Amino acid sequence: MRVTEADLEAANAKLARCSPEEMLAWIHAAFGERAAILTSMQRAGAVLCNMAERAGLDFDVLFVDTGVLHQETLEARDRLASTHGHLRVKTLSPDKSFEDQTRERGLLYLSKEGQEACCALRKSAPLHALAGRYDALVGALRQDEGGRRSAIRPLGLDPEMRALRVHPFASLGREALDAYVAAHPDVVVNRLHLMGFPTIGCFPCTTPVRPDEPERAGRWRHLEGVAYCGINPTDGEPVDGVELPERVIDALDGLRVLSPGR
To answer: Deepest of 53, 129, 130, 182, by most Cβ within 10 A of its Cβ?
Structure first.
């Protein structure tokens, strides 16, 4: 069945009244092993994983290792895998090493067009290779990140994965994340956050950010007009609709039994 963003309006209105923990519980109950958390081992994603772990919810956690990540990010992945027993961390990798890619195509990230190709090859393609495996991908994007993310709703559509995107933190503010991390010392915080990196990507394209700069100023600082890698559909152009399996429609219909806690 083809589903549009307008078709999600009623579900989004109901989920918007739920806490992140309640949304995670619904996702787990509705989709089971066909739901996964997607994280790049940044702070918000680590909080999302911690919430799932504390609630005893078993999820696959999808992590894309582009081959050019900071060592601190890989260490955060390993710590999460070893301390969050309910979560199954699965590392996805590009088909080619960065060296082979550079040998064949040059240093792509030195131009805007090249950056788009590099991110597509090294970040998006490994995830898209799993298209059809999951019905719901859970991320930690927030409206207060600004830009195109300011319009995020709890549910969105992913045409490449033929799945729902779920955003339990859509309306969560930075202060709420700070408070959660302060209250839960078992959250796995990427050490780069303590070194002036509010957001973290590949090491050639990520720098620290000054206090007077926007949060994402350190991403692709060398390229004008680049803000996102493209792995999140909400960062791109709106989609007309996505063909979703009947079981996903049934799960959305099941929202009528959800009891919001706020």
So the answer is: 53
Nearest 5°: the CA angle 77, 80, 12 is: 95
Distance in angstroms (rounded) separating the CA atoms of residues 217 and 229: 14
- Run of H or E including 60: strand 59-64
At 72, which amino acid appears?
Answer: E
What pLDDT, in 10s, does the model give residues 213-239?
988 899 999 999 898 999 999 888 888
> What would the CATH number be for the domain defined by 2-254?
3.40.50.620
Q: What is the pTM of this model?
A: 0.94
**Bridge partners of 206?**
219
Name the residue ranges covered by the structural domains of the chain. Answer: 2-254
Closest CA to 73 of 65, 83, 81: 65
Active site residues: 229
